[in-house]
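step: validate -> pass
step: tokenize input -> pass
step: predict -> running
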Amino acid sequence: MPETNPGEGSLLPPGRTKFQWIMESGWKGLCPRCGKGHMFKSWLKIVDRCDVCGLDYRFAAPDDGPAFFVLCIVLLPLVFVVVYIQVHFEPPWWIHLFTSIPVIIAGSLYPLRPIKGWLVASQYLNKAQEAGTEGLWSQLHERGNPPPPGGGGTPQG
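step: predict -> pass
step: emit ->
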């Protein structure tokens, strides 16, 4: 039996597991529900709603996750390569100016958007939320009020 999107009742695209769909929709910046709408309105700014299916992106809170993954997965290895080149070959400083610095800047900026998309798609398909806020979120969605900043706290009566 195919997996379904949590809380939505709609099927994942045929022939894809949840993991494959998270990777595909997240890395391409597509809506994790319909796969057609765009997730981003600018480089790292997430749209308010999907223009195709109307998915409300208020649930999305990747916070510092993309920066953390870029630092750990991309930048640390790049810094080690740059240090190795310096220690092993001892190039003049201008070589680093024209090679190492642009590579590190590109390596820190280009992966941010796909990683943020991956985290948002993962949050949607796994119904990620802060522990203990299920009741608050259901109350807020019933009343149509926007969630409080950070998604936590208690409702004000």
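step: describe -> The longest helix spans residues 65-89.
step: cleanup -> pass
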